[in-house]
Amino acid sequence: MDFVFYLFGITGLVSAVGVVAFRNPIHSALALVAALFSTAGIYILLDAEFLAVLEVIIYAGAIMVLFLFVLMCLNIRELKALPQFNKKIRPFAIGITAIFLVDMVYLITKSQFGVGELATGKYTSEQVAAIGSNAKALGQVLYTRYLLPFEAISLLLLVAMIGAILLMKEGLGRK
Amino acid sequence: MHVTLIHYLILSAIMFGIGVVGFITRKNMVIVLMCIELMLNAANINFIAFAKYRGLYEGMSNQLSGQVMSLFVITIAAAEAAVGLAIIIVLFRSRKTINVDDVDLLKH
Predict the structure, then answer these.
(1) Average pLDDT, stretch B54-82?
(2) Partner B contacted by A44 (CB < 8 A)
């Protein structure tokens, strides 16, 4: 189990660095796909099978295809010629992020999060297994306790879709 | 060392940090959006890790609440990617650039 965690974790982090470091935007997009697949593996380790599948279908499938499609629409040769990195600001960005990370790691290790006990209460692993599957249990929670947020989020998705279509309409943005 | 909640939290913190560095240093707007996805993804790992392991508040733990929140975050990420990429396309149409430093209309 530990080996699998380190495998997925290190693959995910290396691909995440790739997203930031590659010059060619297409390579960055493919590195992001690798990072998302590794995250899906981490989700399976955390007993979230349904979300792992969603991660692969929605993130690595739909969203990344959208990204690659937009990169294809823009002229890739011109894009590669552009300056890709802001060299002036990079030392500050890395320094501030390093301070943030040291803080976070200190806080996480010093806090009482690390008790390492599994969650109690409703929907423990045994109860989820008794219901049938992770997807089934998630559906039960989503359509009862989280019904209103679910409806709100679906409305948000509709608004985003209409907004994207309106933005892309012919004539808008042309001078 | 056995893998516990701490390991997942540190993994997600590092991934978030990489996303922040990319967000600040990259000039290509599409890659800036990708780094936002990376940061949202790191937040998702936290949600799901806290759903499985017990945090500080024992009474509040409901295994699936974290997973439901993570589902909502994925939805928000999809909406954000769609609108963000539409904005980038419109910007490219009108100004022929997707370099974040060239788009400084509000600065002057």
Answers:
(1) 79
(2) no
User: Is there a single domain that holds both residue A12 and residue A67?
Assistant: yes
B contacts of A160 (beta carbons < 8 Å): 78-80, 82-83
Instruction: Write out the two tokens for A107.
Output: 């806080």
Query: What pLDDT is recorded for position A119?
Result: 66
Contacts of B29 in chain A (CB under 8 A): none
Q: How far is A38 from chain B (nearest CA, A)?
A: 11
Least confident residue range of A114-128, B7-21, B24-38: A114-128
Hey, of A8, A51, A85, A105, which one would you mutate to test binding to chain B, going by the most B CBs within 10 A of its CB?
A51
Task: Give the residue among A75, A129, A34, A46 at the shortest CA–CA distance from B47.
Answer: A46
Question: Domain of B92?
Answer: 5-100
Number of domains in chain B: 1
The whole model's pTM is what? 0.88
Which tens digits make up the pLDDT trace of A22-72?
Answer: 888 889 999 999 999 999 999 999 888 899 999 999 988 899 999 998 888
Q: Tell me whether residues A19 and B18 touch, CB distance under 8 A.
A: yes
Domain that holds residue A141: 120-175
Distance CA A3, CA A7 (A): 6
CA A57 to chain B, closest CA, distance in angstroms equals 11
Q: Is residue A30 part of a domain?
A: yes
Query: Could you tell me if B7 lies within 8 Å of chain A, comparing CB atoms?
Result: yes
Number of domains chain A is built from: 2
pLDDT, residue B50, reads 84
Instruction: Confirm whether the ipTM is greater than 0.95.
Output: no
